Structure formats: structure tokens, C-alpha cells
């Protein structure tokens, strides 16, 4: 029988795993609610020859050549009766290893994800730059997918995505959606970005702002009347601004700050935290919405003052991460210890009023309800 990854992937799905890790000579591992665990029924080390053959079966000829030349390759894989996976195949100590991440086949709504309502408002802005940021595995792609679905369901717009790889496959509704995958539909992010404005887009989704060229294209597109959605691997609004500016040489940084101040619509920075009372995780966010005052701070390089703007901007949908952590603790959704481990200023939570375990959410409702995790692809 031809070796296949599918039995392990089915076991992973049954265990509610978000990720699967396969390494030649070691047992398969799952990531469940943020922690690694063995795969039920697959506790023996994976033979190197078996894993090589199984991986060979999911790669195209071009991907095999890419893997042979560079020692790593990104792709997507569809397992029958199970769904799609984002896959990275790589070499380690001369052996094959694979990291797979489940991709949801159904678009979760922002409400189901527990994402703040302002995400929907930002998705429907007519132009500008919207960023979803956070560490690896924080659900950025899932949030962006929900935002694109809002656009697709609401606006007669042309949406073009550039992804590596394509995760959720959108069906055009009110919008016309074209999705381009690196290595399949276009040679590279740079190649796709150089031509995207000739394709008459209204909305552009760039899977990740990776370098000067992608950032420059995103800012230029936002300046010329397009809505641009993208992600950064940063934690917090201020760090996201600094990351973009710092990519450029010093003589260009004032210009980039000006472009950001003019084009930025908002930043949603998110993390996934373990729930206090049961298995699963929930989202904690920080939200910056651009205003004339915020734009001035960005242009002048005073990003340290954005924290105060977010603290005072609740009427516009803004809040800091620490404010959201306070809400989650007060609702009994996450423990105080977990919240403090994620907080920018753990001492700011010292006076938080924690919901007693014996009180259910309804009895504690005056303090805000639990925003539960549902449907996250990492």
C-alpha cells in the first residue's frame, strides 16, 4: 500500500488538533489548545522511508524540485473527507519533517470568532490599509477570511488575494473574488504585486507584508484608492507601526510614516489564550483605529503615545490588550494568571475583579459576557 498521511490527519482531526508535526525517526505530534501531544494510535517513531514516500505523494513535480533544491517548500493539501491543510515540508539533520495546519472549510463569522465588531467596520472601508497582526498561530488568517467574506457578501467589489498558500477558497457572492497562490498562479509575491494594480482590484489581500516591496505596494495601493488587507507577525499596534517603518532605510522612514498616517485605517492585534474553565482558547485583541490625532502621532514618530489613544478611544472601537484582558478575566473567560502572562503591564490587572467559579456567565453579565473561541484556523 502506498504510504499516506491521511490516517494520521484523521486522528488529528478527531483530537481537535490545530497542527500536526511529523519527523522521520520520531513519533507524530499534535498541537491541541497550544500544547504538543502525541497522536492517538501513532505513538511509534515514523520510519524515514515511509515519511519520504508519504510526502512525495502530496508534492507536485515542481514542488519536489523546489524541495530538492532548497530543503523546504510550502503548499496546501486536501485530504479526502477531511479538508485542507497548510503544509511546510523541510529538512532537519538530513531527514524529512512536515508541519501541517488545519484550514477551516467553513468561514466563521467575526461574532463566532469573538473578534471585535470594529473588524467588520474596517473591512467595509472604501480605501486604506487594514492590518491583522499577532504571533504565529494567533488566528490572523481566520480573522482575515471572515473579513473578506463580509466584503464578498456585502459589496459589488473586485477582490484579489495573493496567498502562500491559498487557505480558504472563497466563492464569489456579491463580489468577484480572484485568489492567486504563490508557486501555482504566480511565481512570487513580488511578481504578483508588480502587476496587481493592472488587474482592476477594489480590494487587495496580501497574505503577509514580508519585505520593502510588499509594504511599498500595499501603501501605494492604499494611497490610490484601494482597500488593502494584510498581516504582520508583530504583537501590538505600536510594534506593528515600528516594524513597517524599520524595514526601510533611515532616509525613507519619514516618508513611510507620512504614508502610514495618511492610509492606515486600523490595526487589529490578536492572541489566542487558553480558557479558564474548559478546553479551548479564546481571542484577546488590541485595536487601533486611525483618527486625525492618531495619524499625527504616526507621522511624528510618537508611536509610544498610541497606547494612550487606544485607552481613550473606546467610543471608536479602540482598546489596548490589557483592557481586553481585564474584560476576559472579569467575565471568567481566562484566568488572572494567564492574563498577566500576556499583559503589557501585568500590574495593571492587580485590582481586577475575578468572577467566582460558582457564578455562571449570566449571573456575572453586568461585567460583560464571555467571548468564546469558535472555528479558529491558526
From TrEMBL:
<comment type="similarity">
    <text>Belongs to the GSP E family.</text>
</comment>
<dbReference type="InterPro" id="IPR027417">
    <property type="entry name" value="P-loop_NTPase"/>
</dbReference>
<feature type="domain" description="Bacterial type II secretion system protein E">
    <location>
        <begin position="197"/>
        <end position="211"/>
    </location>
</feature>
<dbReference type="GO" id="GO:0005524">
    <property type="term" value="F:ATP binding"/>
</dbReference>
<dbReference type="InterPro" id="IPR001482">
    <property type="entry name" value="T2SS/T4SS_dom"/>
</dbReference>
<dbReference type="InterPro" id="IPR050921">
    <property type="entry name" value="T4SS_GSP_E_ATPase"/>
</dbReference>
<dbReference type="InterPro" id="IPR006321">
    <property type="entry name" value="PilT/PilU"/>
</dbReference>
<dbReference type="GO" id="GO:0016887">
    <property type="term" value="F:ATP hydrolysis activity"/>
</dbReference>
<dbReference type="Pfam" id="PF00437">
    <property type="entry name" value="T2SSE"/>
</dbReference>
<protein>
    <submittedName>
        <fullName>Type IV pilus twitching motility protein PilT</fullName>
    </submittedName>
</protein>
